[in-house]
Amino acid sequence: MDTVKATLVDAMHFDIEVDGHHFMVDAASEVGGIDAGPQPVRLLIAGLAGCTGMDVISILRKKRQEVTHFEVEVNGARATDYPKVYTDIEVVYRVRATTLTRHRSNGRFSYLRNGTARAMAMLRKAANITNRYEIEQEY
Amino acid sequence: MDTVKATLVDAMHFDIEVDGHHFMVDAASEVGGIDAGPQPVRLLIAGLAGCTGMDVISILRKKRQEVTHFEVEVNGARATDYPKVYTDIEVVYRVRATTLTRHRSNGRFSYLRNGTARAMAMLRKAANITNRYEIEQEY
């Protein structure tokens, strides 16, 4: 069982506690926020970025790729109607490496996939998720 | 469009950026984490806690309830099979207030509901979500 807690501090400003780690969330300014922290709905796509990032860097390391930079950007498009959920989520993986092995048979980095991350498996049920790789080889 | 970014720092430790705010996430110790931050899958339920917390505190304020303490605890039970998604999520709202108005017709705090929060609307498609109120009146 995983437990997290959000405790009201002031206005629309909450302290989030996860396993002894604390950070703040706040509302959009239209609804009383003062930018004291990220908006909480964005933690869904932040969780997705972290989860799939860990998944993919593990694969790159297992494949003995020498990665010098790795980041995951997640772009979430929201519905115009309330509750304005994310309808389409794009995941962009940016990999820079000194060696990068393509798959022998199809010339692609097909060992890279994102389907097994937990957050991905959950959010896929609520939104359309696409992904893209930007790969830069250093020599 | 909402954009977030996870950038690899070291080992399984990523910097998460959301609208200029930064915090760390890290993996579980079994897979190389050193507790440098929360595990990213937990951001899903943290986002849920923050989102529905903002929703409910807004309702309490509209109803002119004098809230002295408010927190939302979210407990997520994971599947035993990979990718070990959250299957059942319990949301516990703890409200302490000097005045608390029950609904005239049914004696319940039926103006409190959590269905409209964005994170709730999304995660409801992936997990079974239940909720419970713990209400304490101060005199």
Structure report:
Two copies of one chain form a homodimer. Chain A is α+β, with helices and mostly antiparallel strands and 139 residues long. Chain A has a domain of 73 residues: K homology (KH) domain (GMP Synthetase, Chain A, domain 3, 2-Layer Sandwich). Helices cover 19% and strands 39% of the residues of chain A. A three-stranded antiparallel β-sheet of chain A has the order 1-2-3, with no helix packed on it. Chain A has a three-stranded mixed β-sheet with strand order 4-5-6, with helices on one face. The longest helix of chain A has 21 residues. Chain A starts with a strand and ends with a strand. The model of chain A has no long low-confidence stretch (mean pLDDT 89). At the A-B interface, β1, β2, β3, α1 and β4 of A face β1, β2, β3, α1 and β4 of B.
Tag the structure with descriptive keywords.
homodimer; 139 residues; alpha+beta; GMP Synthetase, Chain A, domain 3; 3-stranded antiparallel beta sheet; 3-stranded mixed beta sheet; 2 helices
Summarize the structure.
The structure is a homodimer of 139-residue chains. Chain A has 139 residues and is an alpha+beta fold.
Nearest-integer average pLDDT of chain A: 89
Distance between the termini of chain A: 46 Å
The helix fraction of chain A, in percent, is 10-25%
Order of helices and strands of chain A: EEEHEEHE
Taking Cα atoms only, what radius of gyration of chain A do you get, to the nearest Å? 18 Å
Number of strands of chain A: 6
CATH architecture of one domain in chain A: 2-Layer Sandwich
Helices and strands of chain A: which structural class? alpha+beta
Unreliable residue runs of chain A: none
Question: What is the subunit organization of this protein?
Answer: homodimer
Reported by name, the CATH topology of one domain in chain A is GMP Synthetase, Chain A, domain 3
